[in-house]
Amino acid sequence: MIAGFTALCVAELVAAAVRPEAGPVTAVGGAVIDRTPPAVKDFAVRNFGTDDKLVLQLGILVLLAVFAMAVGVLALRHRWTGAAAVLVFGVVGAVSAAGRPEGRPGDALPSAVGALVAAGVLYLLAGRLRVPETVPSPAAGETDGGAQGALDGGAQGAFDRRGFVIAATAAAAASAGAGLLGRQLQASQLAGVSASRGDITLPAPASAAPPIPSGADLGIRGLSSFTTPNKDFYRVDTALVVPRVDADRWRLRIHGKGVARPVTLSFQDLLGRELVERDITLTCVSNQVGGPYVGTARWIGVRLADLLREAGVKPPSKGGPADQIVARSVDGMTIGTPVEEVMDGRDALLAVGMNGEPLPFDHGFPVRMVVPGLYGYVSACKWIQDIELTTFDTYDAYWVKRDWSREAPIKTQSRIDTPRPFAAPRAGTVPVAGVAWAQHRGIARVEVRVDDGEWHTARLAAEAGRDTWRQWVWEWAATTGHHTLEVRATDRTGATQTDKRVGTVPDGATGWHSVVVDVT
User: Which residues pair with 390 in a beta bridge?
Assistant: First the structure.
């Protein structure tokens, strides 16, 4: 256990000199995420929510502890074999770190150095715990006291308890110091990046978002607010360590098939262009029926279509050879987005701001993509650094390789926010309220029913735009007893939600959200 602790602490210190993402727990966790089947990933998001990464990291640490104990038992009898087993752990971490899509050769160093030092510590400590093979017998004529002294002396010679305690304490203390130093160095580096974000003042948008209509937020207790605060906005991604990108060093390259004039842009280049501001609702494809992974923010950014046109890109409908935009993140994520949708006139943005401030680190600082009407896994690349024009037949992005659909328009959905499941409202008038969304189509109608009865049309809040969700409320004359409430929405194309329950894989869940309550 002490040797395992040493490995992690030393690796933490070396990672400070390389980069935080190269740490062994992060590297192995990233490799696990990359190889996780969609059904397992969906299970993790559904049951652990945004804590899924913490659960994964804790699981890795538990397995490491079990591995360490097993190796420790082995090392008592076979010191060299035990030390070699620690080196195997280091190889796993090194390969995981350097082998990820965004991996670099230097990423192998933290795991390799940590394992090498830990192997030495294990060999040293195991030597202090060698089990005696024989105990000297008292010589002829020895007194009982002499025999006892020989026994004590033999045991002390074989099991150096004092030496072990000193060595173990020194190893643990030195390891803790290395780990703390590594954390401090990383924190110091991140503080500089955080300061670069704090120094940014976003210019006023040339095209400001229209004011949110006064009736867009119904102000009902328990109902999601129209605008989701940054701290409450959902986060679903594969990054165990949130990338901290220095805006001054950030660059975006646009290149590939059909790009007549490749472009490289800095953050200041984007801020110097015409900025637009829009209210847009984002939805994660992992959102179950009635789930929390949907939210609305006021985004500020540059129209992606304008940048593509300046680079000479044409959509397929106008003869362009590329039908897919592959956006690459600094953490190695790839997102494939249809060129046609980005250039069809919708407000597809390279966003630099969220709800009046620079993007939070968790949500893609310094720049991310936002495309209304498409699930995030095919549109919302965070920490973006590269845009390549290609075709869907040529390249499969990250999630497509894992059996998700390559194109995924957001499905019309609705959710009951209040009353909550298993609530016990009093009989009488009970407001049943929630949100509905059908980005880039808009919500035309929401209906609610009780206990499979007739559908009742809910009152809709004022519409802020077809790219945002819409609040609704129905005043229910509740009677005592056990009841089931259901909701469905109809978008502006006339399409009504299907009642068929389908999971999130491969292109989003369907079905009616229901809530069970007991009216008293």
Answer: 324
Contacts 24+ apart (CB under 8 A), 35-40: 37/402, 37/403, 38/402, 38/403, 38/404, 38/505, 38/506, 39/505
Rounded Cα gap, residues 293 and 447, in angstroms: 22
Cα separation, 8 vs 6, whole angstroms: 5
Helices 24-34 & 2-18, crossing angle to 10 degrees?
A: 80
- Assign 238 to helix, strand or coil: coil
Closest C-alpha to 62, from 33, 85, 28, 19: 28
User: What is the pTM (predicted TM-score) of this model?
Assistant: 0.85
What angle, 0 to 180 degrees and rounded to 10, lies between the N-to-C axes of helices 79-99 and 24-34?
A: 60
| Beta bridge pairs of residue 294 | 283
Locate all alpha helices (DSSP H) within 470-516, ordered by sequence.
none
466 vs 442: CA distance, rounded Å: 4
Report which DSSP code applies to 409: B
Would you say 222 and 420 are in contact if contact means Cβ atoms under 8 Å apart? yes
Helix or strand or coil: residue 450?
strand
List the pLDDT tens digit at each of the 520 positions of the chain: 999 999 999 999 999 999 888 898 888 888 888 888 877 877 887 788 778 888 888 998 999 999 999 999 999 889 999 999 999 989 988 998 888 877 889 999 999 999 999 999 999 999 888 655 544 555 544 444 443 443 333 344 456 788 889 999 999 999 999 999 999 998 888 888 888 899 999 999 999 999 999 999 999 999 999 999 999 999 999 888 899 999 999 999 999 999 999 999 999 999 999 999 999 999 999 999 999 999 999 999 999 999 999 999 999 999 999 999 999 999 999 999 999 999 999 999 999 999 999 999 999 999 999 999 999 999 999 999 999 999 999 999 999 999 999 999 999 999 999 999 999 999 999 999 999 999 999 999 999 999 999 999 999 999 999 999 999 999 999 999 999 999 999 999 999 999 999 999 999 999 999 999 999 9
Put residue 399 in one of left, alpha, beta given phi > 0 → left and psi -120 to 50 → alpha. alpha
The closest of 175, 167, 169, 7 to 83, measured between CA atoms, is: 7
- In 10 A of CB 191, how many CB atoms? 10
Q: How many residues are there in the chain?
A: 520
Whole-Å CA distances, 241 to 22, 61, 269, 365: 10, 16, 27, 14
Alpha carbon distance 52, 61 (integer Å): 14
